[in-house]
Amino acid sequence: MQPSDSTKRRIGKLELFITFSRITLSSFGGALFWARRAIVEHRGWLTEREFAECLTVGQLLPGPNVLNLTVLVGYRFGGWSGAAVSVLGYLGWPFLVVIGMGMLYQRFGALPEVQLALGGMSKVAAGLLLATVIKLAMVLQRKLRPWLFCVLAFGAVGVLRWPLIWVVVALAPCAVFLSWKAKD
Amino acid sequence: MNQIDLTAIFFHFMALWFVAVGGPSAILPDIHRYVVDVQHLLSNREFAEIYTLAQAAPGPNVMYTTLIGWYLAGWQGALATTIPLLIPATTLTLTVSHFIERYPDAPILRAIRRGLTPITVGLMFAGASVLMRTVSHDWRGYLTTVLTAAIVLRLTCNPLWLLAGGAILGIVGIL
Hints:
The structure holds two protein chains of two kinds.
Chain A: H1 13-25, H2 32-42, H3 48-60, H4 65-108, H5 112-137, H6 144-159, H7 164-182
Chain B: H1 6-18, H2 28-38, H3 44-56, H4 63-102, H5 107-135, H6 139-154, H7 159-171
């Protein structure tokens, strides 16, 4: 059981496509749980540690974490075309489903019952996001600097509503540089 | 509806994805700012309803961006807001992963991770707060949001049940 065992394997395009289709179609409220279950537990493509490493890369980079993970896993086991079919499986179905919901919304969205139901659901949806963020905030170090950057990012984008691009371009290099100098 | 500049939307979304540390929730405030406040393409209510619909569908929560595009301009609109998200995921992810495989212990990677995480959390908090203000008009809305978060943090339950509960509370007129 060497850690590099799985890097040598090739996995068929169809299998990649089917696996990522199943992950995405079972994902309600966060795909990560299902991705780990399919890739590590059911298929055994990656060990627990390799999965964690791929996820770290996905989190380090901009974009949706699990999509980045999908690209990495697809590429690792099937090259460029493997990455392409994996992404197609992962995004293709939700793309069609969400547009189907959009069609229903255009047709029935003006009904008072639908408006009331969506109004109630939207407060819950905001709560689901709030819970995700609180969970993430728990892992921040209990030090001044990380919380300072957290508050600056929140204030600039959430309160002052400045454009995200300029906020990230200004804050990210400072944060990385200070973290590098402090060697933490 | 024909006046929508899909090219501008495409490039705005693509630029956002290149700085989207923290994923789809981190860019929510800027998408709201751009589509609702700057371009006036959607009302607050439409934005809230589109986001909610996408959360109720299977798949990653990034799909709300696809639905915004579709709602604005049909299939072309959906592609204009979806394709930009693939570009950093393929180019940056594959380039950087080669570097990481070669130098897994490079101190710069550790500095990047440690440095960016607080910004990620701050941006996602901004996403949650913008969404709360978009969906709620009174204390009952805020209370529901906070209670939902508390339930999710305390118990492990399927979010679909909570969404269904919210729909029922909405229909009976409590929310």
